Structure formats: structure tokens, C-alpha cells
């Protein structure tokens, strides 16, 4: 039985499901084992998993990759994730298009002072604190607050129901973006780091066991 370790995000679970289908179609029974990022890299290191979906490189998961290079094969990237700050599409573009415009007094008054988002995945809290510092948004009263994915989804739903102005820190791809139209704000200082590659990691023992064309 091949074990596919996957991050807890909906996108990675979906990608893991695709890998499971491919493996089983080629005659390799497989199961999916979800977990948070540290645990997922841990079970790969302990050889309790054969495939990891997926390491965001070169920044988000680079610290977890120590000790893995040379012990795993890097497969072709499955998608290109990136973090962003946005606003609901009903917020006029003439009011705010760039992140630094949030510090303008008339704009800041329309938003709550708390910028809340999902911290556990994508290191969004660290990146958002970078944004607040880079654009000196603390001076306009903004501060970061971590939420669970469920809490953030409820907050987003309430905002859209009442047309409330809110900052939407998120990453793409994300299933919430199919339900709630969000316009990304421009980040000229690059405080959010830009795009990365989601790279599945294949253990060398598994690479030696399966046909090299399985994932082609």
C-alpha cells in the first residue's frame, strides 16, 4: 500500500486524490494521509509516507526540506500558488487598487482595523505581518488576527451578505474564490513574496518500485 501524505488544504487534498487515482489505475493500491505541514514532512522523513503533496518552493516550505534533498525525487509542479491581499469585488476599484491605499484615512475608515486570515497554511500570517510593516499600515490602525479556515469562511460570508468592506488575505488556488468574487490588490513592494511552485515529493524507495512513466 502506497501512502500519500498531503497538506490539509482543499487543493492539496484534491491533487492527492488525482495521484491516488493514477497509482491505482496503474495497479498500485494507495491511501491518503492528511496532516498539517510539519507532521506531513515528518512522516515522509520517517518513511511512513511514499509521496508528499506538495512542497511549496522555493520559500514557504524550504525550512522543512532540510534533509529531504537527495532522499526524494521532485516531480513536476502541479500548480503555482501565491498569497495575496484582496477586497470583495463590490468595493470600488477607484477607492482601492493598491495595498498602500489602505492607509489613506478615507479608505481606512471603511475597513475594520482587524485584518483576519488563515494562518496555519501558506504562512499567511507571517506574510501579512510583512505587508503591514512594509506599507506602514499599523499607523492606520490595522493589525493581524489569525483565524481557522472555518472562522474565516464565516466572516467572509457575513461580509458578502451585508456588503461590508473587508481586506481578504488569502492564497490562490483556493475554493473560497469560486464562491466569493475577490479582487486582488496590487503589491508593488512585493511584500507577499510572489508565486511559488507546488512540487510533489516522491520517496526514492517508491521511485525504484514503480514504473518511471506512471506520472507522465
The largest sheet has its strands arranged as 2-1-3-10-4
Order of helices and strands: EHEHEEEHEHEHEHEEH
Radius of gyration: 20 Å
CATH H-level homologous superfamily name of the largest domain: Glycine betaine-binding periplasmic protein, domain 2
Residue windows where pLDDT falls under 50 for at least 5 positions: none
State which percent range the strand residues make up.
Answer: 15-25%
Determine the number of helices (DSSP H or I, runs of at least 4 residues).
Answer: 7
Q: How confident overall, as mean pLDDT?
A: 90
Describe the structure in your own words:
This protein has 216 residues and is α/β, with parallel strands linked by helices. It has 2 domains: 2-79 and 197-209, Periplasmic binding protein-like II (D-Maltodextrin-Binding Protein, domain 2), CATH 3.40.190.10; 82-184, Glycine betaine-binding periplasmic protein, domain 2 (D-Maltodextrin-Binding Protein, domain 2). It has 7 helices and 10 strands. The protein has helices spanning 10-25, 37-45, 105-108, 124-134, 149-162, 176-179, 204-209, and strands spanning 2-6, 30-34, 51-57, 72-74, 82-88, 114-118, 143-147, 168-172, 182-184, 197-203. It has a 5-stranded mixed sheet with strand order 2-1-3-10-4, sandwiched between helices. Strand 1, helix 1 and strand 2 form a beta-alpha-beta unit. The protein is elongated.
In short:
30% of the residues lie in helices and 24% in strands.
List the helices and strands and how they pair.
Blueprint: E1 2-6, H1 10-25, E2 30-34, H2 37-45, E3 51-57, E4 72-74, E5 82-88, H3 105-108, E6 114-118, H4 124-134, E7 143-147, H5 149-162, E8 168-172, H6 176-179, E9 182-184, E10 197-203, H7 204-209
Parallel strand pairs: 1-2, 1-3, 6-7
Antiparallel strand pairs: 3-10, 4-10, 5-8, 5-9
Amino acid at each position: 500500500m502506497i501512502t500519500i501524505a498531503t497538506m490539509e488544504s482543499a487543493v492539496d487534498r484534491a491533487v492527492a486524490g488525482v495521484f491516488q487515482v493514477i497509482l491505482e489505475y496503474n495497479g498500485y493500491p494507495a491511501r491518503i494521509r492528511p496532516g498539517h505541514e510539519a507532521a506531513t514532512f515528518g512522516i515522509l522523513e520517517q518513511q511512513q509516507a511514499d509521496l508528499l503533496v506538495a512542497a511549496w518552493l522555493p520559500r514557504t516550505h524550504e525550512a522543512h526540506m532540510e534533509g529531504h534533498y537527495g532522499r526524494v525525487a521532485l516531480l513536476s509542479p502541479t500548480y503555482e500558488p501565491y498569497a495575496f491581499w484582496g477586497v470583495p469585488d463590490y468595493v470600488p476599484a477607484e477607492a482601492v487598487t493598491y495595498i498602500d491605499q489602505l492607509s489613506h484615512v478615507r479608505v481606512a475608515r471603511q475597513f475594520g482595523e482587524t485584518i483576519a486570515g488563515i494562518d496555519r497554511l501558506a504562512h499567511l500570517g507571517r506574510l501579512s505581518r510583512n505587508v503591514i510593516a512594509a506599507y506602514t499600515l499599523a499607523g492606520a490602525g490595522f493589525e493581524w488576527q489569525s483565524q481557522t479556515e472555518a472562522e474565516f469562511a464565516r466572516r467572509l460570508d457575513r461580509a458578502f451578505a451585508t456588503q461590508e468592506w473587508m481586506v481578504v488575505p488569502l492564497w490562490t488556488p483556493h475554493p473560497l474564490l469560486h464562491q466569493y468574487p475577490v479582487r486582488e490588490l496590487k503589491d508593488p513592494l512585493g511584500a507577499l513574496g510572489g508565486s511559488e511552485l507546488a512540487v510533489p515529493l516522491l520517496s526514492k524507495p517508491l521511485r525504484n518500485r514503480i514504473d518511471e512513466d506512471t506520472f507522465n
